[in-house]
Design goal:
about 120 residues, mainly alpha
Amino acid sequence: MAAELPESDWRVLRKLRKVALERFCERVLGELESVVSDKQTASHRRYLMIYELIQERDSAIAQAFNDPRRSNALVQLSIIISLDLVTEDELRSFTPRTQSVVAELGKTRRDGRAIKRA
């Protein structure tokens, strides 16, 4: 992508990534707790469900958070947004141009392949 993230937005994103990652992990841990505490499901089945859940969430976390660089920041931000890890107020911290670009990227992602939400 030719669009470059402005320095001010890069600083905002670097802070927001930490918050979004914490939200993602909290959500996944909640999902895991739900599976673990379901005593009506056999232990082996719960184990398999946990294994599958971790694999799926690991893929999502990698797309959203691994290898943070300004060159892929807009795509990662759109993924973080698609995972519902950013509030409207936080999104407004970015420049209007960045908001517009990530909205378009999000639309493209929804029209193409979707990220599995955690």
